[in-house]
Design brief:
The chain is built from one helix and no strands. It is mainly α and about 40 residues long.
Length: about 40
């Protein structure tokens, strides 16, 4: 029983890290787009 609890905990932690990196990538892309727009003007 304890073993499965640990696996579930690990899975949610991995999902949190994945969400975090997705968020960072999204923000980085937004920054890149913003920089490109600044250069166009």
């Amino acid at each position: 029983m304890e073993e499965t609890d640990g696996k579930v905990e690990n899975k949610s932690r991995e999902q949190q890290q994945q969400r975090l990196s997705d968020d960072i990538i999204a923000r980085f892309k937004l920054l890149e787009v913003g920089v490109k727009l600044d250069h166009l003007e």
